[in-house]
Amino acid sequence: MTRAAVLAGVGATVPPRVVTNAELAQRLDTSDEWIRTRTGIAQRYVVDPGMTTGDLAVEAGQRALKSAGTTTVDLVVLATTTPDRLCPATAPSVATRIGLVGVPAFDVAAVCSGFLYALQAGAAAIAAGHADSVLVIGAETFSTILDPEDRSTRAIFGDGAGAVVLRAGQPDEPGAVRQIRLGSDGGMADLITVRGGGSEERTSGRPPRPEDAYFRMEGKSVFFTAVRRMTESSLEVLARTGWQVADVDRIVAHQANVRIVHAVADQLGVPTDRAVLNIDRVGNTSAASIPLALADGALDGRLTPGDRVLLTAFGGGATWGAATLTWPAVTPG
Predict the structure, then answer these.
(1) Beta-ketoacyl-[acyl-carrier-protein] synthase III N-terminal domain: from which residue to which, for each copy (predicted)?
(2) pTM score, two decimals?
């Protein structure tokens, strides 16, 4: 029989430190009104010194496993742009700290689309029979790569982690991941980037430039490209699922900017009140944003069993994607 990946558990975490718009306004040329109007963000969470992406990933992973009622999986996939080290990958350490010694684990780097790319990897492993269960995590400490003087990025990004447990099941049961469609265009690599730290810089023969150590984003171009690619991939995945736009009960989009999420909903013809939003509270958490929103939506009742859910994201690379599933009866760990 056809195997499908079924969502069996969800968990999320954020660091304890809250940074409000008012606090940012004390240090940058900005204001609470400016940030809220342009992004919809009121606050974000930021790691304290010594707290790593791996720390957040472990906590979110443990909570997802608790939600699924299990302590073991056959594979761990971690989506992150802010790994603990350039080498090795962070996933093996996360797996070991959770107690999954010997389990294969690897990182996926697709920036804000990372969770969907990791979800595809986990679902494919289950569909192919290579795993019966997979822990998929999105975790970021974006505060560690932001320019302290750049209000356009400091105001947007926050830290956090979210995770889901997938198990083998049937395509028609609640929680089954129905379809996933992904895309990329490397010609847009400079839209969202950290230029320094890689082989491009190290083999250039030029001394490192301090500004290249920080995250940069072409905001206006990203806005229009994100709306277009998220809308296109959403329509494609809906068609492959056999759903009409009117069938969608909830959109859980990458929490990039409230205007982007609303614009995608408008382009699709879905009422904006069907979008699950938590960006006002956590900011843009890149690869962690979709699983964080899933956990929040399940916790406060915005996601209910039987809801037909559309996931979509756009990130650096450029990368993008969308997925469909019917929400199961799960309680966040």
Answers:
(1) 106-186
(2) 0.97
